[in-house]
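Supplementary notes for students who missed Thursday's class. We covered one full example, reproduced here. Read the sequence, then the structure, then the short commentary at the end.
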Amino acid sequence: MPITGEYEPSTSAWVADQVAEYEASGGTRATTLRDTGIPVIIVTMRGAKSGKVRKIALMRVEHAGEYALVASKGGHPEHPGWYRNLVADPHVMIQDGPEPHDFTVRELTGHERQEWWDRSVAVYPPYADYAARAGRLIPVLVASPA
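Structure (token representation):
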């Protein structure tokens, strides 16, 4: 089921610009995190406080049709705002190419978290550095097709 309502772009201009370009191109432009060459996905969710539609680009960590959503916030000591959105409402849409699809998100623990963490670090090695400096366990969520 699509997420509809008033869209509020990210307050970070580069994030808002990347999401807009990715969506406008049907997933053919703005497909990597800045100059890293690492592919991203667009995640659409509902804001926990505002109820507005929110969109972010996250590293593309895919396995067997599911996606890892790593709440690293670049190694900052607090979780990113989008993490609270997903805890409040686990229904998301993920665009990995031309069309978004419905997914349900759940937070991982134990062995399953470690498997997805290892996959994520393999895609984006700086996650390991982020974990070392964050002073918190970085949440790893998995998005499964709805």
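Commentary. The longest strand covers residues 100-107. Strands lie at 40-46, 53-59, 62-63, 66-70, 91-95, 100-107, 140-145. If anything here is unclear, bring it to office hours.
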